[in-house]
TrEMBL record:
SUPFAM superfamilies the UniProt entry points to: C-terminal (heme d1) domain of cytochrome cd1-nitrite reductase (SSF51004)
Protein name: 6-phosphogluconolactonase
GO cellular component, one term: cytosol
Stretch forming the signal peptide: none
InterPro entries cross-referenced by the UniProt entry: Cycloisomerase_2 (IPR050282), Haem_d1_sf (IPR011048), Lactonase_7-beta_prop (IPR019405), WD40/YVTN_repeat-like_dom_sf (IPR015943)
Family statement: Belongs to the cycloisomerase 2 family.
A GO molecular-function descriptor: 6-phosphogluconolactonase activity
């Protein structure tokens, strides 16, 4: 079977923008990596079905979101862009039911909501700002790093700069109202979040602390409460590490997170229906700075993007044990920082 991916990159060196790639699950190979869309710093992407994708974008000193539509010949054409002065967002996600798009902006400390029209074009709906700071040198101000839906269709925003997860109610028109916030340990640097399939537990990755935090999610209030914290790096690792991406298997039995610096994936078994995790494997990503990775739709494979070494690494995943086995490591995609399957 052939699974299709789109890849986001920085364009500081040789990358041209958005790339495409195919996973041949029968041959266990990554094939046909090639440029797809010329775009400036498309560092995070999301797909709407088979034909529309949205990407963060940069245009000189302005940043924002661009939408593209796939044509019959496989090429993509621009639908529209919505730009604002300043740095581009770092995260974008889709709300299919309400036809909204959410973007988190690290440099501005803002979360922006866009309304999606019938033709796929977007227009600004709402924007909220955070304020504050933290004890780490990278926490001089608010840094929204993730904005995505909770199981009960609220919006959760991870703010690395102020050590918070902020929960918002969302109207059908895309207006945000804060309903709760969770305070992480100072210096944690909340980066990304995933939820257990049962909807009652979440797993927060602290970029600055290199920790995974198990949280109870209270759907009646939108609040989070802490249950467990573990390190994602061995105690013997003394040099810099930054937490990056986090994923959970569809069955909710295994959790995966990438370490930039230690250059590894940590694999954890999920216990007690989600309320506890246990480390079972550390495996090298066979490259430097694994900023993002993704499980394929079957959950039998995991693909890692190593930003600084311009390579993708393919692992096979044992669905019973959760453990990863290296398949290949020399697939070239320059400055790759986002891995997204087209489903």
């Amino acid at each position: 079977m052939l699974e299709h991916l789109i890849l986001g990159t920085y364009t500081k060196k040789t990358s041209r923008g958005i790339y495409q790639l195919t996973l041949d699950t029968a041959k266990k190979k990554l094939i046909d990596a090639s440029p797809l869309i010329d775009e400036d710093n498309p560092t995070y992407l999301c797909a709407s079905g088979q034909t529309i994708l949205y990407t963060v974008t940069k245009d000189n000193r302005r940043g924002g979101i661009a939408g593209y539509k796939k044509q019959a010949d496989g090429t993509y054409v621009l639908i529209n862009k919505v730009l604002a002065d300043g740095a581009p967002p770092c995260y974008v996600s889709l709300d299919t039911n309400r036809q909204l798009l959410y973007a988190a902006n690290y440099h501005k400390g803002t979360t922006t909501v866009y309304k999606i029209d019938k033709d796929g074009s977007i227009q600004l709906s709402d924007e909220v700002s955070h304020s504050g700071n933290g004890p780490h040198e990278n926490q001089q101000s608010a840094h929204a790093h993730y904005a995505d839906l909770t199981p009960d269709k609220r919006l959760a925003v991870c703010d690395l700069g102020i050590d918070q997860i902020v929960t918002y109610d969302v109207t059908p028109q895309g207006t945000l109202t804060e309903v709760a916030h969770y305070d992480a340990e100072p210096g944690t640097g909340p980066r990304h979040l995933v939820f257990h399939p049962n909807g009652h537990y979440a797993y927060l990755f602290g970029e600055l602390s290199s920790t995974l935090i198990v949280l109870r999610y209270h759907q009646e209030t939108g609040e989070f409460s802490e249950l467990q914290t573990i390190s994602t790096i061995p105690s013997t690792h003394q040099t810099h590490n930054g937490g990056a991406a986090i994923r959970i298997s569809d069955d909710g039995k295994f959790l995966y997170a990438s370490n930039r610096g230690h250059n590894s994936i940590i694999v954890c078994e999920v216990l007690e229906d989600g309320k506890q995790i246990k480390e079972i494997q550390h495996i090298s990503t066979e490259g430097d700075f694994p900023r993002d990775f993704a499980l394929d739709p079957s959950n039998h494979f995991l693909i890692v993007a190593n930003q600084n070494t311009d390579n993708l690494t393919l692992f096979e995943r044992d669905s019973l044990s959760g453990r990863l086995t290296l398949i290949e490591k020399d697939v070239l995609v320059p400055e790759c920082v986002c891995v997204t399957f087209i489903k």
